[in-house]
Design brief:
The complex is a heterodimer of chains A (about 230) and B (about 240). Chain A is an all-alpha fold. Chain A has one domain: MetI-like fold (Orthogonal Bundle), CATH 1.10.3720.10. Chain A is built from ten helices and no strands. With about 240 residues, chain B is mainly alpha-helical. Chain B has a single domain, classed as MetI-like fold (Orthogonal Bundle). Chain B has ten helices and no strands. The chains are: A mainly alpha (about 230), B mainly alpha (about 240). The interface between A and B is large, with 50 and 62 residues.
């Protein structure tokens, strides 16, 4: 069933597409994190803005990914922007909720102790709140990363210049070539799992005092659905 | 051409409202396959999740499987399934089955995990009390645990339904019908009206389904619990 000759002659293409896949996902995660962090900080300081931000991000998250890509094509064309905007939007609900939850998890006693010791607001944020919020923030980054890696495959709708490993799934389908479809599918799954495993290690490294991610954190996110 | 006018023109064209590629046919296809898949996923995942929650057996395995399911890209699931289903059924194997299999596989984890977590989190004292006054295990599960866990359990079903509608949309990339067809064909033929027509239709379908589930949850969940959940959400 598999065409081994085709596979071995395309190792270079696999490597190139893997790099592209990581590149497309990394841009989205970086931009997504910066936006989500700013919005989450705003929401923590002004709790009234949290429900609308959370609601908007939640609605975006329920829209199928193909819808967002399709909606942008007539506006921004088959460009990198069209690929990245939906990817960034999909990270928001996961990241914002986890960052906000991270800051809210800091005990009130700790905040009062920090105030009592004379920390200014920005010092308290940087040296007390942020380190304590890290476990939930990293958990959010992990889920967002895996989800973004999955979504990058769909950028293949925008043509051969995008898609990362998803390119092989699209091209293989057009050519009715099972080997190519399977190669693209298996490699994108492997990439998602490898990144997930690496991020678990990072999570342990950054927060050695916590246990591995608990069930409750993963359940909380499952309630909001996946694109 | 302006997006709004292109979309309005597309919706106004009577040709788009009839035939195998008409809006009613595509909408029905989408709703039909989503409903069938959701029922299959419910039959598989709900009893399993409830059982795991009640007995607390196999919970770690179930969560690990569910997390794995979440890590796997939808498109990759379809890609892996397609060559095999084509071997079994050359006609539909490349068109319908990859979408259906992917839909079921992706709908199972949220239903199962939330059913498990909901039941698991029910106060054990209540369960013990029920046992003490002579409830049988099945009565405990269905009469005590399930009603209390309903907000979480139904939340899982709700997110599974969002997932299912999304995956059916993506199915258009694999030759499947449904509303995703308008997106795929619109992009391929560079027709702004059709693309955006699809965008509007899918968005409406998702919002309708979310609305119906919200309504259903209001009806099914007992009033006391609903107030508790609302209070907890407000406190967060």
């Amino acid at each position: 069933m598999l065409d081994w000759g085709w596979l071995s002659s395309h190792l270079g293409a696999f490597a190139d597409r893997t790099v592209q896949h990581i590149y497309l996902a990394a841009i989205a995660l970086l931009v997504g994190f910066l936006i989500a962090f700013a919005l989450a900080l705003w929401a923590v300081r002004r709790p009234r803005v949290y429900p609308p931000i959370n609601g908007l991000a939640g609605i975006t998250y329920t829209l199928p990914s193909l819808v967002l890509f399709a909606a942008l094509i007539p506006i921004t064309g088959l460009s990198l922007l069209t690929a990245e905007v939906p990817l960034v939007l999909y990270t928001q609900v996961i990241l914002i909720r986890n960052i906000v939850a991270g800051f809210q998890a800091v005990p009130q006693d700790v905040l009062e102790a920090a105030d009592g010791m004379g920390y200014r607001r920005d010092q308290r944020l940087r040296r007390v709140e942020l380190p304590l919020a890290v476990p939930l923030i990293v958990a959010g980054v992990r889920i967002a990363s895996v989800s973004t890696i999955g979504l990058v495959t769909i950028t293949g709708t925008l043509g051969d210049r995008f898609g990362g490993l998803g390119f092989f799934i699209f091209e293989g389908y057009t050519r009715s070539f099972a080997t190519e479809i399977l190669a693209g599918a298996v490699l994108s799954i492997v990439l998602a799992l490898v990144v997930d495993t690496l991020l678990v290690a990072v999570q342990r490294r950054l927060t050695p005092w916590t246990r591995p991610p608990t069930l409750t954190t993963s359940v909380r996110v499952m309630e909001s659905g996946t694109p | 051409m302006n997006i709004v006018s292109a979309t309005v023109t597309w919706f106004a064209d009577p040709a788009n409202w009839s035939g195998p590629n008409g809006i009613p046919t595509r909408l029905l296809e989408h709703v039909e396959i989503s409903a069938v898949t959701l029922v299959i996923a419910l039959l598989l995942a709900l009893p399993l999740g409830l059982w795991i929650g009640h007995t607390d057996r196999g919970a770690r395995l179930a969560v690990a499987v569910a997390n794995l399911g979440r890590a796997v890209p939808t498109l990759a699931v379809m890609g892996i399934v397609a060559p095999f289903t084509t071997l079994i059924d050359p006609g539909l194997g490349f068109i319908v089955y990859p979408t259906v299999v992917a839909m079921v596989l992706l709908a199972v984890p949220p239903i199962m995990v939330n059913a498990y977590a909901g039941i698991h989190d029910v106060d054990r004292d209540l369960v013990e009390a029920a046992r003490g006054i002579g409830y049988r295990e099945r009565q405990i599960l269905l009469g005590i645990e399930l009603p209390i866990a309903l907000p979480v359990v139904s939340g899982g079903i709700r997110s599974a339904s969002v997932q299912v509608i999304a995956t059916a949309t993506l199915g258009a990339l694999f030759g499947f019908g449904g509303l995703g067809r308008f997106l795929k064909d619109g992009i391929d033929s560079n027709l702004t009206g059709e693309t955006w027509g699809g965008v509007v239709l899918v968005a409406l379908l998702v919002l309708t389904s979310e609305g119906l589930f919200a309504l259903l949850q209001r009806r099914l969940i007992s009033r006391g619990l609903r107030l508790q959940v609302a209070a907890a959400a407000a406190a967060q």
